[in-house]
Design goal:
Layout (H helix, E strand, L loop, with lengths): L7 E2 L2 H21 L5 E7 L3 H16 L3 E7 L5 H13 L5 E4 L9 H6 L12 H9 L11 H11 L9 E5 L9 H5 L7 E5 L6 H5 L4 E4 L17 E4 L3 E4 L6 E4 L12 E2 L6 H21 L3
Helix pairs in contact: 1-9, 6-9
Length: about 300
């Protein structure tokens, strides 16, 4: 992101590296007790972007001492094929957490497959059972997997010295990965933020954004948050992704939800890419390590 004249950069790569260093020690403790945290991925088909993403997750997990389990099925795999693999991972004691890489081929029932995951092994933290438990749990200690990207947003702020207590957070986007879930974490008493959820159908979006101490852009709409929408000194977390082909080079470029010019007004800003993305992977691994710790009785 450019034009960062005033904003402090929330460096997701550096913050994720610190988390992974901590996880390395926790994994070593588990291994000393005879438990190697196992993280698995289920990839159906040969989508290049999905293959790259899965490969990156396994590389990082192996670097911190985890057991990497890669399971692949052809694009024409049946519903029964995928569900049988899910059942196998649910029963595998060496697998402490896993994800099903999305999107799945269109002939498959994605919801049925995701709901078949053992909630205790839900590395993404998006299983309906875990989300339901999060809805019910405002005060108590969390003992279930948490949504990775919302958790990554919060960790990125807090580990860079930003307190969310009492802050007004405006979220742009209503997807389950971020928009519909981040408020569940932010409004817990332990964090104590106030949340306004907006989306592309919100009529007074600019007015609401100007009230925000923190803006989380997660609509997947290029530069939906303008510099003129930002209160001076606000913290901006850019999670949205829009891919466009550069007409001059023919290469694909990634654009975020937040206009780069907003960095001249903001107090804090996460780059895109390089902000929340690395945090999501770090918190995915955290979910699996925590699951292994719970299983080993050392959580």
């Amino acid at each position: 992101m450019t034009d960062t004249a005033t904003a402090q950069i929330l460096d997701g790569k550096a913050t994720a590296a610190a988390i992974k260093a901590e996880l390395t020690g926790r994994v070593a403790t588990l291994r000393a007790k005879g438990v190697t945290p196992g993280i698995a991925t289920v990839l159906v088909g040969a989508d290049p972007a999905s293959q790259l993403y899965v490969s990156m997750k396994h590389k990082q997990s192996e670097q911190i001492g985890m057991n990497s389990i890669q399971r692949e099925l052809p694009a024409d795999a049946t519903q029964a094929d995928v569900e049988a693999l899910i059942d196998e991972l649910n029963a595998d004691p060496d697998c402490h957490g896993y994800i099903v890489q999305l999107p799945l081929p269109k002939h498959l029932d994605t919801d049925a497959i995701l709901e078949r995951i053992d909630p205790a092994k839900d590395a993404d933290g998006l299983h309906p059972t875990n989300l339901g438990r999060l809805v019910l749990n405002v005060n108590s200690e969390i003992t279930t997997p948490l949504p990775c990207t919302p958790r990554g947003v919060i960790e990125l702020l807090e580990r860079n010295g930003y307190s969310l207590a009492g802050k007004h957070v405006v979220v742009v986007g209503r997807g389950v990965t971020i928009g519909r879930t981040i408020g569940l974490l932010l409004t817990r008493r332990a964090i104590n933020a106030t949340v306004t959820l907006t989306h592309t159908g919100t009529k007074n979006l600019s007015e609401l954004l100007k009230q925000a101490d923190v803006i989380v852009g997660a609509a997947g709409v290029k530069h939906i948050v303008k510099a003129s929408d930002v209160k001076p000194g606000a913290a901006l977390l850019d999670v949205g992704v829009t891919r466009e082909t550069d007409p001059e080079t023919g290469k694909s470029r990634v654009h975020g939800d937040i206009d780069p010019a907003a960095a001249q007004v903001a107090g804090w800003i996460s780059p895109n890419p390089g902000g929340v993305g690395p945090m999501t992977v770090a918190l995915l691994m955290t979910n699996v390590v925590e699951a292994a710790e719970r299983q080993a009785g050392i959580a």
